[in-house]
Amino acid sequence: MSNQAKLELDGKTYNLPVVSGTEDEKAVDVSALRATTGYITLDEGYGNTGACQSKITFIDGEKGILRYRGIPIEELADKSSFIESAYLIIYGHLPTSAELNTFSDLLTSNQNLHEDMKYHFESFPSSSHPMAILSAMINAASCYYPDLMQGDRGHFDEHAARLISQVRTIAAFSYRKSVGKPIIYPKNNYKFTANFLHMLFSDPYDDYEIKPEVARALDLIFLLHADHEQNCSTSTVRMVASSQANMYASCSAGVCALWGPLHGGANQAVVEMLKEIHASGDDGSKFITAAKDKTSGKKLMGFGHRVYKNHDPRAKIIKKACDEVLVALKIDDPLLNIAIKLEEAALKDSYFVERKLYPNVDFYSGIIMRALSIPVEMFTVLFAIGRMPGWIANYKEIADDPKGRICRPRQVYVGQPLNAYVPISKRK
Ligand code: ACO
């Protein structure tokens, strides 16, 4: 296998080093291209650009493989918990019992927001989307820890635990605010996911009964979303972190990137699409026809992926969990039947087959969240809670790299050539 690539430009040949990953992924290293040739690479949407070398998550999109720190997602979904997988993703190894206890204690002792932060919640209009509140409040949380301004290296463990724990508290508080209900504080004796359900659904006078199958399904959703290498939001976190902005600022930017319907917002968009199909009486076939027509403005939400050109392994796990949860909770959701029909039809349709479009993680996650009584506008917030360990691990890779450079892509300018300033009196 060659460890050099040859590039011919303007009659000259240049040798470019080839970099190999653990799983034999190959990349042509163009870091010195501009300095040696005067050319840059152009890759709109970054479909062919490796922005970093990372040790956290491996994906083989052709084979439908996803591994956190080398461990297959199927094994983690079966045997691990969100918090154990979060530790694995951030620290690079499965925790011992002592390490897991220390991590859990740190999460519990940092789960309460600074009391003054309650006042920030009061200033948001009740119509606010919880993703807007989440992003703003994560950034606001940094104001309470002045050590961050001097760099957070000495306090990484504490800040990481605080962010994982508090993003869940903020999410629950923003939901309570949106429905005009009083804030419910976390309990020290509850596990991470049970505590979230408690903060969402308990009342000051009546504790919500946490069903184990509900807590387990939600924990699985968090675990399956915990990292996914250089997606839009994680790349945003790395981009912001590369300027040496603090962990909270970097992750708050990640929340904004996640919000869009082409990324984390797809879980909300899928349920809205299924509701629209259900209300119109369509069995899904009209929608499939529209999704294939580029002028319709419709897409089959929850389908397709930049990296997976095969089944998204998370979608398979979620679909199975979805079936189990609906049976356990005795729910007959017509949207599930529509989703199943859409999937079957799309997987047989030449448009989707030729473009290798398969269901992604978001196709069934919304149906589980509905079954768990999670309101639709909270779906993407749940994704953000799950993704926090991945963002923090990626932040850490940037912050720990002594040779790290600020991320700063170039462009090919296609605007006007040199142009003169025209005084306003002479403009036509
Ligand atoms: N419905 C209909 N057509 C689609 C869909 C879809 N869901 N997804 C892709 N296509 C078509 C494109 O129009 C394009 O067609 P063309 O070759 O005729 O021009 C072709 O398939 C390739 O798609 P791209 O847009 O080039 O794929 P890209 O990698 O840029 O986008 C994305 C990936 C954003 C996920 C896209 O598939 C999409 O919009 N899906 C729906 C939204 C969604 O589910 N997002 C969640 C992604 S997973 C996540 O972030 C957790």
List keywords for this structure.
single chain; three-stranded antiparallel sheet; mainly alpha; Citrate Synthase, domain 1; 6 strands; binds acetyl coenzyme *A; Cytochrome p450-Terp, domain 2; Rubrerythrin, domain 2; 7% strand; 18 helices; 428 residues
Q: Which spans of ≥5 residues are poorly predicted at pLDDT below 50?
A: none
Annotation field: number of helices: 18
Strand content: 5-15%
Portion in helices? 40-55%
**Quaternary structure:** single chain
CATH architecture term of the largest domain: Orthogonal Bundle
**CATH homologous superfamily of the largest domain, by name?**
Citrate Synthase, domain 1
Order of helices and strands: EEEHEEEHHHHHHHHHHHHHHHHH
Structural class: mainly alpha
Task: Please report the first level of CATH classification, the CATH class of the largest domain.
Answer: Mainly Alpha
The CATH topology assignment of the largest domain is Citrate Synthase, domain 1
Bound molecules: acetyl coenzyme *A
Q: What does the main sheet amount to?
A: 3 strands, antiparallel
Query: What's the mean pLDDT score?
Result: 93
Number of domains: 3
Rg measurement, Å = 23 Å
User: Order of strands across the widest beta sheet?
Assistant: 1-2-3
Number of strands: 6
* Shape label: globular
- Terminal CA distance: 62 Å
